[in-house]
Write a structure and sequence with these properties.
Blueprint: E1 4-7, H1 11-22, E2 27-30, E3 42-45, E4 48-51, E5 57-58, H2 62-70, E6 77-79, E7 86-91, E8 94-97, H3 102-107, H4 113-120, H5 136-143, H6 146-160, H7 170-173, H8 175-184, H9 187-200, E9 211-214, H10 219-228, E10 233-234, E11 239-245, E12 248-253, E13 260-262, E14 264-267, H11 271-274, E15 278-280, E16 298-306, E17 316-320, E18 329-333, H12 335-338, E19 347-355, H13 360-363, H14 367-382, E20 390-396, H15 408-420, E21 424-426, H16 436-454
Parallel strand pairs: 1-2, 1-14, 2-10, 7-17, 11-15, 14-21
Antiparallel strand pairs: 3-4, 5-9, 6-9, 7-8, 11-12, 12-13, 16-19, 16-20, 17-18, 18-19
């Protein structure tokens, strides 16, 4: 049996490869760059720890718990500091703690009394036609009003998608929210009754899920997966063509003359990279339309300060900033409040994000300019004084796929390709959700689909990408 080719060595591809190896099935991971992990990368310097991409994993599913256990990382896992449980939103240029209970909601200054009373009417608003695809903004305006859109949904979407609620599809970007309305006729009733169903499935909502990382950052997760996949990794291997010949798929890597046969192909790279692949021998189907998926630019700016130079107690996860407040940063994570060893003694680490669909022109500015504009916003919001003692920034020209209105055409394209070209599989943040936990679950789930496809009667040997048969180990 030829191995399954996995295009992309990010968290989805690595998770799928690891799970397939546990099934004693052969894999070959093709990664175009010199390192694994995609946007996941942790940098330690001068006593600070900076994350390139995501800062935490949300423990929303038993699949995530099982992966950490199987990788032998349970003793390395660090849950976020319970004392940093607050989440702040900005209103009137001040941080306001997001209410965590019905009593706190009615006492909060975050929303006006008219907005609070409007929420009481939400259970009596009719559900939408399930065939109509609404934007998230239209959905929120219809059910709970303008103030919640401006001061709750807009900053949340900026923090998660770096996106615009007027363009995102509620059905595609927030399918569980859409399902709550369709099933229960109300978000409030759905939250209450849906919680019982999640408990039965042993799942936790993202809002309440425990957050974790590792002592040396999320890089530990990538390193562990890489160790388990030793011998199956093809680095600096940019795939340029996929060709179906009979039951096999032949993979062509840039700069290599010979196409390599595989039993199947998992496409786990970003959608804009997949759009560049030539797909041949599959009834003239094309991956090119995936290039239309929007990925706005985002810059991650990690700054360190002396503790005495930050007036705010930083007693929370971080802050999100509504567009109507007029600041240039989308939000800030209080990184050193969440986990130990993120800053030297007597210092703090703040991770801020700039750009997205709100202000894409800012994301590509130089590191010094970004540090200055972020520091200026933090002076107003957190009472920062003086200059940063640590600066680190990463620019992503195409950061996060936007599940905009009409996104269903991309998912339908993927389903059609999988149906018409057996052995071709899709998984990752462009299909199954954009969070780190979503990508891990996506890799796990696609492995469970690939496994039965690969197991064929009479298969007695395993072939590597370019060599003889070898035994596999989990």
């Amino acid at each position: 049996m030829h191995s399954i080719a996995i295009i992309g060595g990010g968290i989805t591809g690595l998770t799928a490869a690891y799970r397939l190896r546990q099934m004693n099935l052969p894999v070959t991971v093709y990664e175009a760059s010199a390192r694994l992990g995609g946007v996941i990368q942790s940098v330690e310097k001068d006593g600070y720890l900076a994350e390139f991409g995501p800062n935490t994993v949300l423990e929303t599913s038993p699949k995530i718990v099982a992966l950490i256990r199987d990788l032998g990382l349970e003793s390395r896992r660090l849950y976020s500091n319970p004392a940093a449980g607050k989440r702040f939103l900005v209103r009137n240029r001040r941080l306001v703690n997001l209410p965590g209970s019905p009593f706190a909601f009615f006492a909060t200054p975050l929303f006006s009394w008219s907005a609070k009373l409007r929420l009481l009417a939400e259970p009596f608003i009719r559900r939408s036609d399930p065939e109509i695809e609404e934007s998230l903004a239209d959905f929120v305006l219809r059910r709970i009003g303008r103030e919640f859109l401006d001061y709750a949904i807009n900053p949340f979407v900026a923090g998660v998608y770096a996106g615009d609620p007027a363009r995102l599809s509620v059905k595609q970007a927030f399918p569980k929210l859409h399902a709550l309305e369709q099933k229960y006729g109300s978000l409030i009733k759905g939250q209450i009754l849906g919680a019982r169903e999640r408990r039965r499935r042993a799942e936790v909502s993202k809002q309440n899920a425990p957050k974790f990382s590792f002592e040396h950052g999320l890089q530990e997760l990538i390193d562990a997966l890489g160790r388990h996949l030793e011998g199956a990794l093809q680095m600096r291997s940019r795939v340029t063509r996929l060709q179906r010949r009979g039951a096999d798929w032949h993979v062509t890597v840039d700069g290599r003359d010979r196409a390599i046969p595989h039993a199947g192909v998992l496409l786990a790279a970003p959608a804009y990279r997949l759009a560049e692949l030539k797909l041949e021998g599959a009834d003239d189907l094309s991956l090119a339309p995936l290039g239309e998926i929007q990925y706005p630019p985002v810059a991650s700016v990690v700054l360190g300060f002396r503790r005495e130079d930050v007036a705010h107690p930083l007693d929370g996860f971080g802050m999100l900033i509504p567009a109507v407040e007029g600041f240039r940063i989308l939000g800030t994570i209080f990184s050193s409040s969440l986990f130990p060893h993120r800053a030297p003694s007597g210092h703090v680490t703040l991770t801020s994000y700039v750009g997205g669909t709100r202000s894409p022109e800012l994301a590509g500015r130089g590191g010094a300019e970004l540090a200055a504009l972020v520091t200026e916003d933090l002076r107003v919001l957190l009472g920062v004084r003086g200059q940063p003692t640590f600066c680190h920034h990463v620019y992503y020209p195409r950061a996060i796929p936007q599940y905009e209105v009409g996104y269903s055409r991309f998912k339908q394209l993927m389903s059609n390709l999988e149906h018409q070209a057996p052995g071709l599989f899709f998984a990752g943040h462009y299909r199954d959700g954009i969070s780190l936990g979503d990508s891990m679950a996506s890799g796990n789930d696609v492995a469970e689909r690939i496994g039965p496809f690969l197991v064929k009667p009479g298969a007695t040997s395993v072939e590597t990408a370019g060599g003889p048969s070898v035994p596999l180990h989990s």
